[in-house]
Amino acid sequence: MNAGEFPASKFIKGVNTRTCVALNPTEKKLVILGSQYAGEMKKGVFSVMHYLMPEIGVLSLHASANEGETGDTTLLFGLSGTGKTTLSADPKRALIGDDEHCWTDDGIFNIEGGCYAKCINLNPEKEPDIFNAIRYGSVLENVRFFDTGDHRVNFADNSITENTRVSYPLKFIPGAKIPSYGGHPKNILFLTCDAYGVLPPVAKLSYEQAMYHFISGYTAKVAGTEMGITEPVATFSACFGEAFLTRHPSVYAEMLAEKMQKHGAHAWLVNTGWSGGKYGVGSRMDIKVTRGIIDAIHSGELEKVPTKAMDIFGINIPQSCPGVSSDILTPINTWADKEAYNDQLKSLARQFIKNFRNYEDQSSDAIKGAGPKL
């Protein structure tokens, strides 16, 4: 039940704001009070899937998915602001879904049947598929129009919120795969928006490192993803979606590890955040660079190039990438102040270590040993 603007009562134990989203999995009830954000319905159902699916051996995932011409599938994990929706809408690949999937013994399938994309500052040149999906049959949320009387959307207007959205059926994306299912993933991408600018644009992960970074779920809350956030703030969200988990993160991590090893999936950390310095000093990674890196992953070329272990984190950085300048692949090379880089790297490592203490009790020694070392 979604009551829209009708507020929650603060006189009820455990309720301290006008907004309340309450889920009772055993009684199969979801109640939403005091919210005009349609995402509460979408994520409420997603939380239900996180509760039900593991009971039947199916892994529910906060990830987008697409499929290449040869039938190879890719999962892209990431929180809001990391580019998951944008990067999954790849003109060279068929979109299976942009946010919520399940991995079964037969492959993956999409839960939603549609997309729920952010559209603040939407640019038809950078995100043509999403821009062109906004037509009759789509639903815009929290947007304003130009004062011209022709119903043209002003995508730069954030007077209601930075978190403007559009919902549209999957079939609005050219080449989307209908029905929305695919085979076992060949590549798994962990997208992160590193506000500190110390993580590389791409790194190859071992299975143990993949589990560590999956449980850590590091990114940055960026402007537009939450009320009151005006600049990036480092955050950790287990499994890249802790708010939706109904079980301990290790349950999902162990299931992911088992499926990755069984089907030979490759894991990659992809930073869509800052390069050349932290937020305010460096610049946001160009989406064309990120797309070039992901193209090289899909073609198999990036798997072939030499790598070098990164200091402290130990993840393997490719030393070249087709179509991408090698200068940006190793983060320290992009910083003018090398000492400042090393200080920032150690600071981020300490945050990783501190955060992972929350999950050490149910993590194997191999996973615990795959994190940064100071």
Could you characterize what this model shows?
It is a single chain. The chain contains 8 helices and 20 strands. It has helices spanning 39-52, 84-88, 128-132, 207-216, 249-263, 287-299, 338-356, 365-368; strands spanning 20-24, 29-33, 59-67, 73-77, 94-97, 100-103, 108-110, 114-118, 139-141, 165-169, 181-182, 185-192, 202-205, 218-221, 233-236, 266-271, 274-275, 283-284, 307-309, 316-318. The protein is globular. α4 (207-216) runs antiparallel to α5. 23% of the residues lie in helices and 23% in strands. The chain is an alpha+beta fold and 374 residues long. The strands form 6 sheets. Strands 3, 4, 5, 6, 7, 11, 12, 13 and 16 form a 9-stranded mixed beta sheet that branches. A 3-stranded antiparallel beta sheet has the order 8-10-9, with no helix packed on it. The chain has a two-stranded antiparallel sheet with strand order 1-2. The mean pLDDT is 91.
Low-confidence stretches: none
Oligomer: single chain
Compressed to H and E, one letter per element, the order equals: EEHEEHEEEEHEEEEEHEEHEEEHEEHH
Overall residue-averaged pLDDT value: 91
Keywords, separated by commas or semicolons:
9-stranded mixed beta sheet, single chain, 20 strands, alpha+beta, 3-stranded antiparallel beta sheet
